[in-house]
């Protein structure tokens, strides 16, 4: 047999053997075998990263950044006092930031938001300078509110110099237990409502104490959040 004939026979035999192998091992079975090998020896690092990225659950975000969701018959809120006289307060209600420095609608003194206790709608909001402003404007804003109105208050700079006993008593009637102790440059946060039969559990107060102040002349920032019941 000539060398050329020998090569042709070898090539034909190779083709026949290849066809026999393919018929005995279809592509699907070969793919399964490859998958089994990967399971034995482990996926590549890139595949593992993709799998982790796909399977990682998305972080759940609750209204106003609360750690958990409020009951259906409650409103979510989160309020922060100002920092010294530099960074303003922030009032969030039902996942809507109503007052903040970014919105340019806050000011020194008492920052107050009034909420409809049935619908959760913001009725009105404003700030009242308690160092050089007029307390009469504050009284006009918070007196004679409709039953069920929710009141959120965040202090900034000085919340107390111009406060009168009459103004303090209005907050007492809204459920405050700390307003009578609030003094010059103290920090104070409060959430109450018209017609509460008990004192509000949503209130924080920190005194202006030069031995403990975080800022030069002002105490630390306060934060208060929770779930306030709808109109009772």
UniProtKB/TrEMBL annotation:
One GO term describing the cellular component: extracellular region
Top-level taxon of origin: Eukaryota
Pfam family, one: ILEI
Subcellular location field: Secreted
UniProt-recorded Gene Ontology molecular function terms: carbohydrate binding
Segments forming domain ILEI/PANDER: 109-195
Keyword annotations: Disulfide bond, Lectin, Secreted, Signal
Principal location listed in the UniProt entry: secreted
Entry-linked InterPro entries: FAM3, ILEI/PANDER_dom, ILEI_FAM3C
Residues annotated as transmembrane: none
Secretion signal span: 1-24
Keyword Secreted: yes
Annotated PANTHER family: UNCHARACTERIZED FAM3
Family: Belongs to the FAM3 family.
Name of this chain's protein: ILEI/PANDER domain-containing protein
